Amino acid sequence: MGKWFPRIYDIAMRPIERSGFKKIRTKLGKEANGRVLEVGSGTGINFPYYRNAIRVDAIEPNSIMREKSLRRLERARVPIQLSNARAESLPFADDTFDTVLATLVFCTIPNPVKAIQEIERVSKPGAKVLFFEHVRVEQPFLRKTQDLLTPLWKKLCDGCHLNRDTLALLKQSNLEVTEVKYYYNQIFVVVKSFNNKSNKL
Ligand SMILES: C[S@@+](CC[C@H](N)C(=O)[O-])C[C@H]1O[C@@H](n2cnc3c(N)ncnc32)[C@H](O)[C@@H]1O
Fold this sequence. Notes:
Elements: H1 4-31, E1 34-39, E2 53-59, H2 63-75, E3 80-83, E4 97-103, H3 112-122, E5 123-134, H4 140-156, H5 166-172, E6 175-183, E7 188-195, H6 197-200
Parallel strand pairs: 1-2, 1-4, 2-3, 4-5
Antiparallel strand pairs: 5-7, 6-7
């Protein structure tokens, strides 16, 4: 992984965080309750927003990101345990979590299908699974632009696929999608779902 991307991440994100993402993160943070898993916690940008979690287990494979998140971790209102792990191989037992949160991370995970399967495994039956992601758009011009930019974008932004169809992957998974809310010309989306595995047994 590149070193400069994690170092400039917070500064680069500041304008969009202030203009809209902060509101989205605030709502998602409040919704996360019980034992919470955060996937790809980056610089800990969601850490200040947790209010109702008993405990948060955050996983993040990038050591610079983990280090940058420590200040927010120490100031958080809930206990947060941070681990070096990848979404495709979560170091947790089956049926551990009441809520799973992933924000702006499924664009970068090398094997998103495996990551969703792991989230299904470690979350309890009925657990909330919440996502805030950028996705492949329907609008033809924007879609083409996403496709054209993706090869360079991946190099600049640590493997981020601008054009990944994460929403389709979630709909095809065993998670039950209950709400989809679009933002910024349908480029960003909040997806609420739950783990309905007990219903399928
Ligand atoms: C664009 S950043 C988003 C960080 C943070 N979640 C946010 O909302 O700003 C993407 C994050 O995904 C992490 N990541 C990349 N591959 C991953 C994987 N296989 N499993 C978990 N996290 C991963 C990166 O290290 C990075 O911290």
